Amino acid sequence: MKMKRRSFLKACGVMTGYAVLSMNIATEAMASVMSFVGLRQKSVYAADANSKIYKYRKSQNNPMIAKIYNKKNGFLHDGPCGHKSHELLHTHYIDRSAKLSALKAKGYKFNF
What GO cellular component is one of the record's annotations (predicted)? Predict the structure, then answer.
């Protein structure tokens, strides 16, 4: 296909116009989405702050938690980072890959 110089410049101008226009549309769409996200985030935080369901939004303000960690007669009297709370509230990793490999070698099939 042969194209004259004038036709080529017209085509380039049209393509540039479409590129600029589509970029402008994409920018406006992104701005509206981000505006919606900001409004949604603000409304979620406002609903959480005004919620009647959650009386104590922070665990340190909950009197039951304070009672558990009480220094005199609380169950976890050694504090939030103490030995007893660490023992009861934290998980431990156990490597079971060798046992899993042995079961796979015997022919067991797993769906994960």
Answer: periplasmic space
Domain for residue 112, yes or no? no
Say how many domains are in the chain.
Answer: 2
**Is residue 5 situated within a structural domain?**
yes
In this predicted structure, the answer to whether residue 35 has a pLDDT above a threshold of 90 is yes
DSSP 8-class letter at 112: -
Structural domain boundaries, residue 16 = 1-54
> With contact defined as beta carbons under 8 Å apart, do 24 and 31 qualify?
no
Alpha helices, DSSP H only, in 50-96? 63-68, 83-89
- Rounded to an integer, what distance in angstroms lies between the CA atom of residue 60 and that of residue 64? 9
Task: Write down the pTM of the prediction.
Answer: 0.38
The DSSP secondary-structure symbol of 61 reads G
